[in-house]
Design a protein that fits this description.
The structure is a single chain. The protein is an alpha+beta fold. Helices cover 20% and strands 25% of the residues. The longest helix has 14 residues. The protein binds flavin-adenine dinucleotide and uridine-diphosphate-2(N-acetylglucosaminyl) butyric acid (EPU). Uridine-diphosphate-2(N-acetylglucosaminyl) butyric acid binds next to helix 5.
């Protein structure tokens, strides 16, 4: 255990000091879970309070950061192969590079998402080109009630939502992959990358709000709605609504969580469509 400012572990670069428990196996994880806790992934969807959080913050390392892509011959089919276990603490970008080199498809639509595998699964991170649940065979989930292995069919997952309860920890997953070629996988990644060209390069936790659905069932763009409200470039302290894409809040350097909260409140006061937060606010 060490005390660290969570600003070190978040892409936004905001967050006060907390007790951080980095665990490398199930015994260490069980010990860390003996008191109230939160689970931290890549910190790429988090706005952590300037005072930090009182709970233990658990990070997955050791065996939870290992990758076994060896196909399991008992679980695959002619068209799909199933990998060995991949740890929930494995960074998604590096995993996708390995899959591309092997010519394994299904997860390439998530390219550009700076998550850990467990965090990407927990919120079913995705893009217009695919989402985390496209490439999952089964998951190991640890909670105070014990350890269980589930398949996607056991979960009520949907857009940006796995249906896994908060603080139930995705410790590892088996991937369900198609056999393709490195070139074909790369071509799909290039298309998904291209769709990101208009996103800001500053420190950020990604899109602030989920894209809402209209009463007619059509998916609307939260960014477009915030842009139409005239909020691009609006600034509180050192946080700003990105001029490049209005659904991103960026840290211009030295922003506080309070600055970000104020911008979220401003957006909600100016946009009449109800917007559901995509960020996770700690606490
Ligand atoms: P964290 O931010 O650390 O945590 C987020 C939530 O997941 C928390 O509630 C945490 O407790 C929980 N969690 C983390 N790890 C686990 C685990 N092992 N088990 C259970 N729960 C866990 N998102 C998209 O969907 N699509 C995008 O295109 C996209 N683009 C982005 C671009 C940028 C530049 C940035 C900074 C973010 C972007 N995001 C995007 C947002 C973010 O990457 C995703 O929400 C991602 O899934 C967060 O994963 P994480 O590991 O960083 O989780
Ligand atoms: N638009 C505007 N103004 C803006 C932003 C967007 O008019 O300020 C318009 C664009 O011109 C476009 C439409 O809105 O016509 C959609 O924009 P974009 O293509 O950028 O896609 P998005 O719906 O805003 C979604 C995801 C992103 C993902 C991209 C690319 C959500 C909330 N956002 O953005 O995911 O990277 O598609 O696939 O679903 C995230 O979830 O954190 C995230 C970054």
């Amino acid at each position: 255990m060490q005390r660290s400012p969570l600003s070190r572990f978040t892409t936004l670069g905001v967050g006060g000091e907390c007790e951080v428990w980095t665990v490398g196996d199930h015994a260490q994880l069980a010990e860390a879970m003996e008191a109230p806790y939160r689970i931290l992934g890549g910190g790429s969807n988090l706005v952590v309070a300037d005072e930090g959080v009182p709970e233990r913050v658990i990070r997955l390392g050791g065996e939870f950061a290992e990758t076994d892509l060896t196909p399991n011959p008992h679980l695959g089919t002619d068209e799909l192969l199933v990998s060995g276990w991949v740890g929930g603490g494995v960074p998604l970008p590096g995993l996708l590079r390995k899959l591309q080199r092997l010519g394994y498809s299904n997860l390439e639509g998530t390219v550009g998402i700076p998550a850990q595998l467990g965090g990407a699964i927990w919120m079913n991170a995705g893009t217009r080109f695919g989402e985390a649940f496209d490439g999952l065979h089964s998951l190991e989930i640890v909670s105070p009630q014990g350890t269980r292995v589930v398949t996607p069919a056991d979960l009520p997952w949907s857009y940006r939502d796995s249906g896994i309860p908060r603080n139930h920890i995705v410790t590892r997953a088996r991937l369900k992959l198609g056999c393709s070629t490195p070139e074909a996988v790369q071509a799909k990644m290039d298309a998904a990358d291209l769709a990101r060209k208009g996103q800001p390069k500053n420190r950020t936790p990604g899109c602030a709000f989920k894209n809402p659905t209209s009463p007619g069932g059509e998916r609307l763009g939260a960014g477009k709605l915030i842009d139409e409200a005239g909020l691009k470039g609006a600034r509180v302290g050192n946080a700003m609504i990105a001029p490049e894409h209005a659904n991103f809040i960026v840290n211009l350097g030295g922003a506080s969580a309070a600055d970000v909260h104020a911008l979220l409140a401003l957006i909600r006061s100016k946009v009449s469509t109800e917007l559901e937060l995509e960020y996770e606010l700690w606490p």
